Amino acid sequence: xxxxxINGPEDVKKxxxxxxxxxxxxxxxxxxxxxxxxxxxxxxxxxxxxxxIALHYVFDSPKDKxxxxxxxxxxxxxxxxxxxxAYLYEEHYDDxxxxxxxxxxxxxxxxxGHTSTSISxxxxxxxxxxxxxxxxxIIAVIGDGSLSGGEALEGLDFAAELESNLIIVVxxxxxxxxxxxxxxxxxxxxxxxxxxxxxxxxxxxMGLDYIYVDEGNNVKELINAFEQVKDxxxxxxxxxxxxxxxxxxxxxxxxxxxxxxxxxxxxxxxALAQPQGDDYSDITADYLLDKMKKDPSVxxxxxxxxxxxxxxxxxxxxxxxxxxxxxxAEETAVALASGIAANGGKPVWGVYSTFVQRTYDQISQDLxxxxxxATIITFxxxxxxxxxxxxxxxxxxxxMANIPNLVYLAPTTKEEYLAMLDWSLEQQEHPVAIRVPGGxxxxxxxxxTKDFSKLDKYEITQSGKTVAVIGLGNFYSLGLDVAxxxxxxxxxxxxxxxxYYITGIDKELLENLKKEHDIVITMEDGIxxxxxxxxxxxxxxxxxxxxxxxxxxxxxxxxxNADEVIKKNRLTxxxxxxxxxxxxxx
Amino acid sequence: xxxxxINGPEDVKKxxxxxxxxxxxxxxxxxxxxxxxxxxxxxxxxxxxxxxIALHYVFDSPKDKxxxxxxxxxxxxxxxxxxxxAYLYEEHYDDxxxxxxxxxxxxxxxxxGHTSTSISxxxxxxxxxxxxxxxxxIIAVIGDGSLSGGEALEGLDFAAELESNLIIVVxxxxxxxxxxxxxxxxxxxxxxxxxxxxxxxxxxxMGLDYIYVDEGNNVKELINAFEQVKDxxxxxxxxxxxxxxxxxxxxxxxxxxxxxxxxxxxxxxxALAQPQGDDYSDITADYLLDKMKKDPSVxxxxxxxxxxxxxxxxxxxxxxxxxxxxxxAEETAVALASGIAANGGKPVWGVYSTFVQRTYDQISQDLxxxxxxATIITFxxxxxxxxxxxxxxxxxxxxMANIPNLVYLAPTTKEEYLAMLDWSLEQQEHPVAIRVPGGxxxxxxxxxTKDFSKLDKYEITQSGKTVAVIGLGNFYSLGLDVAxxxxxxxxxxxxxxxxYYITGIDKELLENLKKEHDIVITMEDGIxxxxxxxxxxxxxxxxxxxxxxxxxxxxxxxxxNADEVIKKNRLTxxxxxxxxxxxxxx
Lengths: 586, 586
Known about the structure:
The structure is a homodimer of 586-residue chains. With 586 residues, chain A is an alpha/beta fold. A six-stranded parallel beta sheet of chain A has the order 9-8-10-11-13-12, sandwiched between helices. Chain A has a five-stranded parallel beta sheet with strand order 2-3-4-6-5, with helices on both faces. In chain A, helix 15 (330-342) runs parallel beside helix 17 (360-368). The first copy, chain A, is globular, with a radius of gyration of 26 Å.
């Protein structure tokens, strides 16, 4: 087995073409086995095996520097740069992260997880090299799907300004997570069909040199191409045509499903565990499809992650032109929603908490200054969500809650969620965002009669004394737990409050609490800095009411255990109850 | 005079070509006179006079909808849509804002001020129209300079997906505020040189139809072109070549200076008032130029606003390759800075507070997760800065202060600013941002010996009792004023604190304050929500120390008077002193 002998790029360079082709096959086997047991990004890695071998054969990493876009296609790179054990041996599977990671290896230059950043980051490496008078090859590897993102297109445009080496490898498998969306993909298709010969060429129009490799899964072809551009003194695009999921039948056939996978049966491709119970994505799609039937102005928008809204292929087909995928282009998604709302439509953009970060200026300028009635739904804004440092859902509250005009809502149950969504779609006054609760779907079957147009009105759901607990969104249930723990331990019957609104405070209700309460507790599923609880602390700043804010510390967590993080931040009902008792006894 | 008879687009339609050409000349005269007395955006409007006439002749606004990018070129549009008085008569000059504004007219569809948003917003209008089965022409007008921004490029790419009318007018005057930067401008040049005939065409590569108008200041040519694309059922680009500042000699010659102007002498073009005294932009450029001479790895970065960093043309020439203008591409600026820092360089990106908003995800992901030692300088983050609703500098603290790993500093004097900048450039540990104080430059000549690497260490600059005043950045001097007012009125000698750090709290110092202080006051020049003061309120939440946070209410202010806003937010020393006394007497 060649793979077992590869301890770094220098070992790749010892192989001949046939041996490298065999190595590719071994790598695919290892990837397949690991994926079936461990899960992970599948399709992107399978397509990049040969290109990664060729890159390490031709270039001299880490002096030459490779930056992978999104970096969920770095498994082959990790295998060839001293980390093969994490792909060969089950007991080492968790030795590596799913993304490029400078803490693992000097062959990784950035921790990357969001798309469309590689070219601009690589421009920086190239400029740094240039300023210091060094000679290095700087290589950005970017998938076709990531090209539609604003930062990537900015980078393509700016790259031509660099009077230095920069090699942009466009890994074209004709797929994003789902199918690609955008006019540039017609040009990529034309380039593939003409084997790079078409005169009209996006990359050349951006001022870049360009070469095309038709067999992007052929080691020899790739080596030839990379040798051609090595040490180039100006930016050049190497457009390689690859096959997503290459080498595993089910993945070649259903590329969308096999972009990322949970552990599966190797022979059939079927997942080992079936998802259990209700899911907010499905609930959302069902609600919206029903709404769309009754109202042709309702439109769902995704930026390349249709299933976060529950819109699988069949549901997208059902929605027809009432479903829009803008591709990886979050900024455009927000502007589109604002424009649709300004012209009589009812747009709903669904997005992961971690990606809503890509649209601060658009939410503020395109949407909120204009006060257009678009709806944003943020998913997985929770400590119980994705736990890679690049995909945390812990920052959407400080990012969004401090933008004027935005109404950011935090439902605690399925019923509240749907009532808010329905209210948001039917009102014309405000841009509204809804933070879907993290964790399992809670449903109590109770009809929600609250009028959400009366902004910032909290609700006392349990009336008590001495201590008031304000539990935001999916931490509302923690609030209930704390209240009952407190009752058990101290006989204090606490007031419990569902605030509903993240973006504003209910001054009247908070003022009234002063009469019979000494302590107010807030709880939120996100970092505390700039969040919801601090607004309550500010409100009570000049009073004798004491405030304890519960949430997470401002830090970049990585591959954490949620229960440990909860404990470390004193977020269990026992810890909180203990704090309350201590404060009462002071 | 034709202009006096124009009360709306219907009056433009009554004119023949010769009359419209005369109208254009009258409009230019009015613009010139107004600019000389009132100031405003000059070059962009002068180039767009004929195109605006032609648009209103051919299309039926407001049923047909025109969206202007940045919208600082909407003066001609406003003149033709019922707002001519604001350009003809001095007493009405302030009746209109400098940007498109739906509150002024049904011919304006969005309040716009940041660049690169028009195409995506127009896509939304087109989609809204389509969903409702309406027939409208939707027109986005975008300058060549704005095309390099991520959102614009995303929009160009996505537009091709629309199966509906969308007309993108590219107003190509071969200039941004300064010269353009990026490879796509080579393609625009090629298209101009070949009169739109070149096969390699950025817009076609994005999947769009395309026509070219060589004489973009010729009403007849423009009318022909617009008639050709009117009612088109698919997206099309109309690329028009215009002349920035056309019709005024000094502006035609020096396009950068005449992008925006203060009141000036009509004959000579000289400004009526000369800027007085020191300026943080000049100070920055002088410091950096000196540093660059000694250290080749220092590099200044701008995203199309070089003078915010003080880099006028002569200083850019002096800096040579140590100055990089990425064009309007803020996202790329941040990624570039991160990449440069990762490869041995010392990058400094200078940006207006209002535009740093465009880079939340890049600051978080590209820069801070990677903890690269790049420096960001934010300018005009203050209530005393730009006062258009789209250009407020009041949100950078909540946006940036809650991102992990970032060290955001608030100097109070020129000496502190330069000491922080120097420290930031020489350290390798942290991404650092510095918030340049708003208002006039304060200098006390005192050497700064503080070690900024000891993070979050505040400084007691005046030791007192009972009341502690924490004045952040340029509100530190307000803190001093409040302390002396309080001494005068109550004999309380307050403690005064310069916190330096926006991103963290000095727990030890704050803890110590508890001993001899009953009240802690915070002051910041920005909105309170998600800001600095709330962190202090949270810290003292469980104690008997009372906290009063001073800053601005979360709202979108527009064309405000700073003194009035200060009063309304109780930010005068008298108001604050009154509040303190009231709280002491409670």
